[in-house]
Amino acid sequence: MPANPIPITLPHPSAINPPKQRIDGYDFARAIAIFGMVIVNFKYLLEAYSSGPEWLSWIVELLDGRSAATFVVLAGIGFSLLSSRARITQDPAGMSKNRKICIRRAFFLFAVGLLFARVWEADILHFYGIYMIFGALLLSAPSYILLTLTNMALTISILLLSLFLYHTGLDWEVLLESDIWTLEGMIRNIFINGYYPVFPWIAYFLTGMWFGRQNLMNTVFRKKLLIFSILSIIIGESAIRLLSPLVSDNADLISVIMSTYLLDKYSFPVNFFYLISAGGSALVTIILSINIAEKAAQSKWIRPFLDTGRLALTLYIAHILICLLVLAITGRMEVKHSLWTACTSAFIFCIFAVTFAYFWTKRFKHGPLEAIMRWVTN
User: How many whole angstroms separate alpha carbon 326 and alpha carbon 46?
Assistant: First the structure.
């Protein structure tokens, strides 16, 4: 009998010849994430923890960790887009070239992040560098492997937390490793108990790599993923609010682990249901940004926001340095400010950021730090 014919599935035309231009929705999502991160970081820089109306505190608390999650997912998406042509055409030489560029950028961000961490302890860039090294090794991995590793990262993080390894070497007065600048302390900080440790934050990066491989021209897929992401938020937030009171009053070991590492509403220390909720928030932000950018493609108002997203690295460094500089000049470095002051300052910086990005990109293709990174790593 003749052999059964092998079924052939043709990829979407846009996947065979992926577009070279940037996807505006991703830049818009970066701008939204920048605004959220500025608000959260200004709260910490100005020590504005509790002096504000309840509704404003709720909004700022809601943003905490979610903007960072959006950035990490977007970084994973960028990885997939960088290597899309070589991966789809199965070009070994092209994939090797892309992998080398990714690794060089990873080391660049890691080095810059470590230097920046001397100024801003909650730096995310050096964590980015580690995510990107793992991502470079997985550029050609099948999509189901990325999703499997995502679940493994979440599982490992809960295991590490349950074994109380999170507390090792951590100074709770400053929320930092007491020996962070030793090799052991740095490894522990990067992988277990830093602000954005590999376990579980690399799950967001791997999710982004998976997302970047999908055919976003398929609006049905986008709607399904949007619904799934909204359900993730509902499940995560419902678990935190409904289950947390049931275990918070118990002193047994299981209850302590659940209330601290599974049901806590904050991003630090990391906990499972918050990760589910924040991950859903990141995908909702990105999908809605794509929809908005498509509908407003010909509108003039969106251009400054897209430019802002393209200068994400520059603006991330700038908002910390500028805020610290102003506090030092005015002699208010140790003063505790109100939440209104923090949010107003963040709003002023965001206006500055959008204005600067708009005029900068009229003359230059890349932001200052973005250009330096490309020059060093390409």
Answer: 11
How far apart CA 194 and CA 186 sit, in angstroms, is 9
> Alpha-carbon distance 373 to 378, whole Å?
8
* SS3 of the chain: CCCCCCCCCCCCHHHHCCCCCCCHHHHHHHHHHHHHHHHHHHHHHCCCCCCCCHHHHHHHHHHCCHHHHHHHHHHHHHHHHHCHHHHHCCCHHHHHHHHHHHHHHHHHHHHHHHHHHCCCCCCCHHHHHHHHHHHHHCCCCCHHHHHHHHHHHHHHHHHHHHCCHHHCCEECCCCEECCCCCHHHHHHHHHHHCCCCHHHHHHHHHHHHHHCCCCCCCHHHHHHHHHHHHHHHHHHHHHHHHHHHHHHCCCCHHHHHHHHHHCCCCCCCCCHHHHHHHHHHHHHHHHHHHHHHHHCCCCCCCHHHHHHHHCHHHHHHHHHHHHHHHHHHHCCCCCCCCHHHHHHHHHHHHHHHHHHHHHHHHHCCCCHHHHHHHHHHC
Neighbouring residues of 208: CB distance < 8 A, sequence distance ≥ 6: 72, 73, 74, 75, 76, 77, 78, 79, 80
Residue 137 CB contacts under 8 Å (≥ 6 apart), including other chains: 99
CA 29 to chain centre: 11
- Taking only the tens place, the pLDDT of each residue in 189-216 is 888 878 898 988 999 999 999 999 988 8
Rounded Cα distance between 287 and 211, Å, is 10
Q: Rounded to two decimals, what is the model's pTM?
A: 0.85
d(CA 233, CA 227): 10
By CB atoms closer than 10 A (0-12, 13-18, 19+), residue 338 is middle
Distance of alpha carbon 345 from alpha carbon 367, whole angstroms: 23
Distance, CA of 172 to CA of 153 (rounded, Å): 25
CA angle 322/320/61 to nearest 5° reads: 130
| Cα(196)–Cα(275) distance, integer angstroms | 12
Residues in the chain: 378
Residues 74-126: pLDDT tens digits? Answer: 999 998 888 888 888 888 888 889 899 999 999 999 999 999 998 898 899 99
